[in-house]
Every structure is written in structure tokens, then in C-alpha cells.
Amino acid sequence: MGTKTVGIANQKGGVGKTTTVISLATCMAELGRDILVVDLDPQSNATSGLGLPRQEGRSLYRALLNPMPIDSLIQKTAIEGVDLVPAELDLAGCEVEIARADEYLHCLAKVLRPLAESSRYDFILLDCPPSLGILTMNALTASDSLLVPMQCEYYALEGLSVITNLLDRIKQSGANPRLRLEGVLMTMFDTRTNLAEQVVKEVREHFGDAVYETLIPRNVRLSEAPSFGQPITLYDSHSSGARAYRFFSREFIKRARAHAADERPTEPVVPQDAPVAAETAGTTVEAAETAEAVAEPTA
Ligand SMILES: Nc1ncnc2c1ncn2[C@@H]1O[C@H](COP(=O)(O)OP(=O)(O)O)[C@@H](O)[C@H]1O
Ligand SMILES: [Mg+2]
Predict the structure, then answer these.
(1) The whole model's pTM is what?
(2) Nearest ligand 1 atom to alpha carbon 219
(3) Ligand 1 atom 27: the closest Cα is on which residue?
């Protein structure tokens, strides 16, 4: 499938962007995928959540301003299959400088392009800051698709239209015509309230299949894990949070595969008489597990 670059964005803070990036990366790595997480938030929560210290001078800061190979900035994490480009506080200041650059929306795209073309990673996940500023716009210009985590709360729909309008603008301006909505992930779902169910129903009415079947429950273990510098799969592998993100990672990969198939030329890719691939055989299991994630009480 090559490398898919996915921006994880929402202008609001505290909706589960970073938790989703870390959990999705580690769950996909469990499934054998190679993942690069790029921490674009000067608050460095993805960096610390993956157990790495903030190191001044090791972020994308210089690379964005003076295109240089990104390889020297990539660090291994304790999780096999997950690498990281960390953030640092200086990234905040770099927005002002980027704004003065030629083609300022494309700074990140230029840095990531050789890496994406090398197919070293299956997915590059860009953890965006909680704003629609220059770093987020750079992320969306560099991405194949946008994944929006949404908290199950009032005004979810309103918030969603803000970010999807930005997606449309970036597409239509020509900055990134291929950008598409990867999906909307409802987070912090609280089974004890009717509100959460109403919100999900309303968002599904407007965004249909773009909303993932998997709902991420509110789970205290997910909120504890970052202070130990561990992803949920290590911190508490059997928690409802870890299970939900495992279901989600399967659903995410399946949809990404479907999008890739849409975008391929119409020639049949698999000859009729090809042996059934193990991946295809596993599809029904994945579907059943995803359905279970939805049906299952998530508290
Ligand atoms: N499903 C969840 N259940 C409980 N706490 C969560 C959940 N998802 C995230 N959190 C916690 O909520 C806070 C905000 O989440 P975070 O992923 O950092 O959001 P963002 O990156 O959008 O600002 C963090 O303290 C995080 O640990
Ligand atoms: Mg964050």
C-alpha cells in the first residue's frame, strides 16, 4: 500500500488526539505495521507519552525552516515498530518563521516527501496541536487524509464542521487536492449518559460512514498511562481503553485499505485464481470483533 500519511487534528484540546495517535500507533505495531509518529505539538505530549524526553534541538524545528533529511531526527521508542520525531517548545516559535517562508504551507510536506516515497513506514501519524494554525495547516498539506477524534459532548457537530471546512479549503486552494477525510473517531464515550449516545447518533446522521463503528470509552487507565510514559497496551493491556484501541486499529487499517483500493486504477489487482490471502481470510474476524466493540458495554 506504500506509506500513508495521516494528520490527526481537531482545533480543540483535550479531545483525545494524542491518546489516539499513541494508541493507534502501538496497536498497529502489534499488528506488524511500521509506524512513524511525528509530534507537532509544542506541548510534546506524544513525545512524553511514548516515554521520550523533550530534547531541545531534536524536533522538526530546523528541518521545517531549512529543508534537511528527517532521518537524523527519527528516534526509536521502547515499542517495536513505533518511531518518533519528537517535539520541543521551540516549535511554537517556529510558526512565525514558517509564515514568512515561501510556500509556507508546504514546509512539512517537503520534509516528509522523501520519507513517504521510501515506503519505510506503513503509516506516518502527525499529532497536531490544538489549533488550526500554521503547524496544523502544514500537517494537512502534508497528509493523505485527516483523522478527527471527537469527544462525545455537546457542540461536537459544530466543532466537526470547523475542521472539515478547513479540509475543504486546503483541498480547494490547491495546497493539497488529494486530501480526504479518513474518518471521525468518537472518544471518551460514557455509557452511563444518554448524552453520549445522542451525540454519536447526531454525528452519524451528518457524517454517515465517516464515523468509525468503534467508540472509545472513557477509561481512567487511558488517562493514567501518559504519566508513566507508556502506551495503554503496555500500561494496562486488558483495560477497556486498550481493547477499544485494538478494535479501532483493525477498523482503521481496513478502511485505509479500502481507500487505497478506491484510488487504484480499475484493473483487477488480484487475479481470479490467486490463492486466498491470509489477510482476506481474516476479514470476517475483524468485522465481528469491530461489531463486538460497539455492542460491548464500554465502562
Ligand atoms: N478515552 C479516554 N478516557 C479517559 N481519559 C482520556 C481518554 N482519552 C484521553 N484521555 C485523557 O484526556 C486528556 C486529553 O487527552 P489528549 O489525548 O491529550 O487530547 P488532545 O491531544 O486532543 O489534547 C489526557 O489527560 C488524556 O490522558
Ligand atoms: Mg495533544
Answers:
(1) 0.89
(2) 3
(3) 223
Residues across the chain: 299
Does residue 279 register a pLDDT over 60? no
In angstroms, what is the span from residue 283 Cα to ligand 1's centroid? 30
8 A C-beta contact, residue 122 and residue 3: yes
Q: Which homologous superfamily does the CATH classification assign to the domain defined by 4-265+276-295?
A: P-loop containing nucleotide triphosphate hydrolases (3.40.50.300)
Question: Any idea where the domains of the chain sit in the sequence?
Answer: 4-265+276-295
Mean pLDDT for the stretch of residues 227-234:
97
Q: What are the contacts of 256-261 at 24+ separation with CB within 8 A?
A: 256/1, 256/4, 256/123, 256/182, 257/1, 259/145, 259/180, 259/182, 260/1, 260/2, 260/4
Residue-wise pLDDT for 180-216, tens only, equals: 999 999 999 998 889 999 999 999 999 999 999 999 9
For residue 235, what is the enclosing H or E element?
helix 232-235
Cβ of 114 below 6 Å from ligand 1: no
- The predicted structure's pLDDT at residue 283: 39
Q: Between residues 36 and 100, which one has the greater pLDDT?
A: 36
Q: What is the pLDDT of residues 165-181, one digit of tens each?
A: 999 999 999 999 999 99
Taking the mean position of all CA atoms in its chain, how far away is CA 260?
Answer: 17
Nearest to 80 by CA among 11, 38, 114, 32: 32
Which ligand has the shortest distance to the CA of 39?
2
Local structure of 170: helix, strand or coil: helix
Atom of ligand 1 nearest to the CA of 217: 1
Q: Could you tell me the end-to-end alpha-carbon distance of the chain, in angstroms, rounded to an integer?
A: 36
Instruction: Say which ligand is closest to the CA of 190.
Output: 1
* Atom number of ligand 1 nearest to Cα 216: 1
